[in-house]
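Hey L., structure's done. Input below.
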Amino acid sequence: MIGVRRQTAIYRAGVSGRRPRVPTDATKLEARARKAMPSEAFEYISGGAGTGATMRANRDGFDHWRIVPRMLRDVSARDTGIELLGRRLPSPFLLCPVGVLEMVHEEADLAVARAAAAEDVPMIFSNQASRPMEACAAALGSSPRWFQLYWSIENDLVESFVARAEASGCEAIVVTLDTTLLGWRTHDLDIAYLPFLRGKGIAQYTSDPVFRRIIATSPVELGPDEQPKPTPAALRTLIQLTRAYPDRFASALRSGHARAAVQTFVRIYSRPSLTWDDLPFLRERTKLPIVLKGILHPDDASRALDEGIDGIIVSNHGGRQVDGATSTIEALPGIARAVDGRIPIVLDSGVRSGADAFKALALGATAVGLGRPYAYGLAIAGEAGVREVLENLRAELDITLSLAGCHSLAEVGPETLH
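Output:
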């Protein structure tokens, strides 16, 4: 079993004086990552909206529930596998989309893709990735992947992203609903740093033919108040965004395409007018399952069923969008009752341990999504760090399953919690 194997490997390595590359304790993992990351990167990845109340609620929500172990049950053989959208997976974990990973590690999404493939964990490509989806698909090989979609105000771009996702072997389109505007992210605001304005995290756009056409045919004209002042900091930013553009530096600087790409992205990336009435547009353009990410109310889950949606992700964007929002684990039971097993439910936001995953599964989740933990592993040790985070979480879930008196996830239900 993976839990015992992982424990044994760590302890045996300790005999030779080797310790794990990444901490097994989630709180220590974040502290170690902080030392490994540039300050603006750590603030971007770790920060939440407003005072951070939603992030705290996510953790408090998990801590509110207690596992009730049962004794004298044969748990010598255990199964942590699940069925998700027609796939049999060895564990219930998915890698949720985390944008701008180039701030965390130079290999960014490619390192994560290789780790996901090695650990057989599905990866959801970020709409705000640092590497194009095609490159990540190549790194994944035959491993499962989904694509996160931020619905642009340009429907042609939405259609292009979806077509590229299909061609890249994605098995679902994840429409993120809670980021039609950026939340009030005080960690980023206080240092006046938004990575997209420096050309970071827009690789899906700059690699897209429709986006390039939009740049050429609909240039953004900045007003006098929007023009950056000619300061050394502005010059450094221009150099950064030019280097980030997929062209030779001199050519991108002369043409102005790099700066135009950033300006165009800011103009078109989000669509605050998005409603349920827009979903048929997507259904008409893809045969892939459509998953809605950001559901927190049972009525929205019921509406998703009525609209023929194939899955939902209970998420508050890791506490990054609405300060004081409900925690995901608090919202989960009501949503699970509304869904009643008809479509899969993935829960993310606040998952830090195998025990957290156990609780989410007990309350009705089909699978759980990971975000910050694997980003922290990436910061500490690149691909190997992501792999160790996944190994540790899978091992802890296996051990928790056993010690709770269950031999499979099918036995994990509300009765296992108090």
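The beta strands are 82-84, 87-89, 93-95, 123-125, 145-149, 173-176, 290-295, 311-314, 345-347, 367-370. The chain has a mean pLDDT of 94.

-- N.
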